[in-house]
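tool_log.txt
---
The assistant was asked to compare two proteins side by side. It first ran the structure predictor on the initial sequence, then on the second. Raw inputs and outputs are pasted verbatim so the downstream comparison step can read them without reformatting.
(1)
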Amino acid sequence: MGINGWEWILIFVVALILFGPKKLPDLGRALGKSIREFKNATNGLMDDDDKKDKPQAATTVTETASAVEKVETGKEEVKPQAK
């Protein structure tokens, strides 16, 4: 029940008559970009859901080592804030 060869040809001819040969490639590009953006948006939504389901990772080894060093030495560095 899909669209077979003759139906695609008929659709292409009607589109060619309506939009002209110069405008048809631009319409194809615009349609391709729209589909690509839609896929990226849906993938982004799925990725956001996956991130919410997974627990946050524990602190890294370097963060833990620097925290232990601060406790052992009793010194803490003050870093200037970037504006």
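(2)
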Amino acid sequence: MHAEDKFVYKRRLAFVVCEAEGALLRMRQLWVWMLLMALAFVTDRCHCCLQEERSGLLGIKAWFGHAGAGSYWLQGWDKEDLNCCDWDWVWCDSTTNRVIQLDISAVNYYAREDLYLNASLFLPFKELEFLNLSGNRLAGGLKNQGSLLSILFN
């Protein structure tokens, strides 16, 4: 082999090696990208409210239902839906996924009887900052549950 041929051969070999290394790098980048996308999808699917708080919301719905209040307003609160942060009248903190606001006003608006509030229904909500129960014809019972209400609003 002549010196010129050796030089051309080495250049072609170097070019092929660089192409292979480039392809391998692109393949690695593709795998990293696919892994990040998969993790983002899985992470996004897991942004659900806490089980304790979801159970608490379902307990509130059941309490209004047993009390004869119209469950129409809370029919979107479904035990099959794991993300109660997407439910009507429920707002969650975007970082902790804890319920921070509940606006369940006028659920009992058209009922014929007043409701006696069971404040312990709200104990699962450790970061609740806003609670609207207006228009529910709530009566009595609050005097006996002062300690529970102080926990709720502290």
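---
observation on (2): The longest strand covers residues 99-103. The chain has two domains: 1-46, 51-153.
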